[in-house]
Fold this sequence. Notes:
single chain; 562 residues; Potassium Channel Kv1.1, Chain A; Serine Threonine Protein Phosphatase 5, Tetratricopeptide repeat; Apoptosis, Tumor Necrosis Factor Receptor Associated Protein 2, Chain A; seven-stranded mixed sheet; 19 strands; elongated; ubl conjugation pathway; SKP1/BTB/POZ_sf; POB1-like; BTB domain-containing protein; BACK
Amino acid sequence: MRVLKVPDLFELSTIMVSDFSPGGAFGSDTTEPDFGFAFNDSNFSDRVLRIEIMPDSPETKSDGDCCSSIADWARNRKRRREDFKKEIDVVQRQEQVLNCNVPDTVDGLTYENRDDDAVAMIEGSPSDVGLNCNQIGNDTAYDNYSSLNKDHLTVLRVNIIHISSPILAAKSPFFYKLFSNGMTESEQRYVTLPVHASEEAALLDLLNFMYSNTLSTTTPTALLDVLMVADKFEVASCMRYCSRLLRNLPMTCESALLYLDLPSTVLMADAVQPLADAAKQFLAAKYKDVTKFQDEVLNLPLAGIEAVFSSDDLQVASEDAVYDFLLKWARTHYPKLEERRRVFATRLGRLIRFPHMTCRKLKKVLTCNDFDAEIAPKVVLEALFFKAETPHKQRALASEEANAPYRHFLERAYKYRPVKVVEFEKPRQQCVVYLDLKREECAHLFPGGKVYSQAFHLGGQGFFFSAHCHMDQQSSFHCFGLFLGMQEKGPVTFAVDYEFAARSKPTEDYISKYKGNYTFTGGKAVGYRNLFGIPWTTFMADDSNYFINGVLHLRAELTVRQ
């Protein structure tokens, strides 16, 4: 059979793949024809692929012949990852021996070493090998493949497969470079590919996919194996296919964490990004209300924490609560101070939206030993500058980072709504507090809901707002109510003068609604069941006087009574 030369390869691959994907010439899986009939058929092949099966190290073997569950796959992969550095050291030492003592070709073999540890050897046709042309078989007679390779590796068996170099080259940059490197050896018929025993089945599935664009396996563990091998040999279309099948399987917390813990080379690939995004969305939705799952979330690994706390829809009391929880998580998982500082500087710090923390908590950030001394002042200063901006500028800053993976200025769905406070010490202790509620937030209050503000302080006492949807007992209709409460319980008494106001059309100025004075005792509140004196339907109407660009603006002035 004639061996295809490089120009033939280019022409055939162009004919086979007529419409490449926008991302490049490799990996289009939308318009490619099905060449499954030609797989391992000598009539449609120009080369012979020898797959040398090497033993896995004892540490990397699974508990059984295969992984029966995601958990088994994860445990096995963890053992392999722990041994990965050791393997790399051995490979690097072997490469140094090859580079120093061996010419580019030995006994007619050409070696190509790649960063991703996929290695292929091309050689001329040996005379001592009998081939079964149309089946995958074990080549036990193959004894003279490479004396140099034998010195370092034990070959368990050799699988023989007939391949078409244009088909493989069209699917994979790895094989494209292998078959078109311009060297004489690139035109040889026999190609040797060493792989670990644990990769054998996945590689055969991958090769079949490169012909047929489909996989027969559907189990999560088998798909993960194929995904890893597809990444190793740069078959982006198969990575996309595996990613799509895995996304269509029922997601669990265990599988989601496993997908996010794939090697960075796999996880950062465009083909796998949708799978990683689906895993993050699953975890963010499952642990949306962190307060209900505190113990579970506290046991999540770092990748899971990032998925949960990067969400805009996280239901937490306040950003202060996010800070406190992440500090607790870091101290649990990183007991060494230096490691904890490093993870806050590189991973955890970007999950905290410092601009939405209270000033009291920001002061604690400055003195927190878990933050690097150079980082803490920067994030606090950025937060204070944001708080000093006008609402329009704050919204603009938040919209600018709408597509960023980690946001700093966008508000979450806090259970306790943020407030802005202006404090005065003289001539009397006084504060002006601003609370904004979106129209959607008010709509969710009907028919009997309530929403609380974050705490603020006056004269050393903690206060909060609560907005309600009430049934007016006299008129028998629902209405909007606003109350001011004091946090401290017990015999404490505290007298204040207060005034409630709200922005109103057409002037959009703050219009006073009620004023008075009240002596607070622990657990008491003062307010008005019908702040605006109108029914709920009028208050929420499209032409309501109190929603300006979809926001209800409330203000309270509190002064300590002498």
